[in-house]
Amino acid sequence: MTVDHLLRARAPISSHSWELLDQEAKERLVATLGARKLIDFSGPNGWRHSASNLGRVKPVADSPVDQVHAFQRLVLPLTEVRAPFTVSRDELQNGDRGAQDVDLTDLDKAAMRIAETENIAVFHGWKKAGIAGITECSPHDEVPRVGDFNDYPSRVARAVEILLRSGISGPYGLAVGPADYTAIVETTEHGGYPLFQHLRDILGGPVVWAPGVRGGVVLSLRGGDFLFDSGQDLSVGHDWSDGDTIHFYIEQSFSFRVATPEAAIALAAT
Predict the structure, then answer these.
(1) Is the N end or the C end of the chain the one with fewer CB atoms within 10 Å?
(2) What distance separates the 2 farthest-apart alpha carbons in the chain?
(3) DSSP per position, 175-186
(4) Helix (H, G, I), strand (E, B) or coil at 238
(5) Which residues are paired to 74 by β-bridges?
(6) 104, 24 in Cβ contact below 8 A?
């Protein structure tokens, strides 16, 4: 995949520094891109990939010739997303010398911001970008929830039952935000059985940490229901330099659409 538009060759840093930035970004993004663990990912199809085919048309009202019918193909444009960050030139040079504690704090924050943006777009939508999220599209009423996480399994079981009654097969996954994920991991039910494992038993699939998710979302993992189309996958690019400060960004282009609205249900936030 060409990365010329990222202007990496113009950055005043070594190849080792690029490896360091790429590896740090990858580690942070793999942990935080919760949506990708539960939906269908297509691509990457490259920077020039601009739209997703919806397989539909709309009629063109007027034709320049009588008895000729015209239709226009419908597509969903990809959205470009960029999160800027800076790194000290001195810090990168320390990395070239073998330092193991290079300060990449701003990169880590940018990775979290862009991952959270993706998670929110997938699960809750992004109207200005033309993206309808999973919870927006679902025809099911939210499953009510209480603050006591010992009652959480019954809520998840209820969500699974609703999906089954709608003809949606499993296995299923559960996406939750950081606070709920921590509560789930730390809760032990009566008898000493970990709540986290109980939920996995009910779902038949994973419980996923997904920053940006409000409440929780139970969805089928059977495939074909939730479609993420990647143009350029997440990549680090160079913007400009200012003395000791070098300006970078993490960038991607993508679209998302829900093919089967019935295949997911939201758990109401507390």
Answers:
(1) N
(2) 77
(3) EE-HHHHHHHHH
(4) strand
(5) 56
(6) yes
Can you give the length of the chain in residues? 270
Q: Do residues 51 and 78 make contact, with C-beta atoms less than 8 angstroms apart?
A: yes
Rounded Cα–Cα distance for residues 233 and 212 (Å): 20
pLDDT tens-digit series, residues 41-87? 999 999 999 999 999 999 998 889 988 999 999 999 999 999 999 99
Structure-token pair, residue 140: 């099911």
HSE-CB of 55 using CA atoms within 13 angstroms: 2
Burial class (CB in 10 A: 0-12, 13-18, 19+), 40: middle
Record the tokens describing residue 17, joined without a space: 């520094």
pLDDT in tens, 165-199: 999 999 999 999 999 999 888 887 655 578 899 99
Q: How far apart, in whole angstroms, are the C-alpha atoms of residue 66 and residue 61? A: 12
Q: How far is CA 35 from CA 12, 28, 47, 227, 247, in A?
A: 35, 14, 21, 11, 28
DSSP 3-state percent helix, strand, coil across the chain (nearest 5): 35, 30, 35
How far is CA 126 from its chain centroid?
12
Question: What are the structure tokens assigned to 40, written together?
Answer: 């269908």
Distance in angstroms (rounded) separating the CA atoms of residues 9 and 17: 12
- Report the alpha-carbon distance of residue 255 to residue 39 in Å, rounded: 13
Angstrom CA distances, 131 to 15, 79, 110, 226, 270, stand at 37, 9, 22, 12, 25
Cβ burial, residue 267 (10 Å; 0-12/13-18/19+): buried
Residue 1 has pLDDT above 70, yes or no: no
Of the candidates 106, 110, 108, 54, the residue with the CA atom closest to the CA atom of residue 77 = 54
